[in-house]
Amino acid sequence: MLLPSDPAILLSFLNMKLRDDYDTVEQLCDDLDIDADDFEAALDNAGIEYFHEGKRFVFKS
Description:
Largest sheet: 2 strands, antiparallel
Radius of gyration: 10 Å
């Protein structure tokens, strides 16, 4: 699946998917057929990190 390239839209998309469809990031990657390493690199390049306690993605501080 092609992920949104705009960081704000990507952040919103990922949080919506986690909230509505998946319990874990691993499930999201598996179901969307996204390579976990590529996914992590894309998020890092977009300045996004996963906040485990809140189960959501946030922009890095």
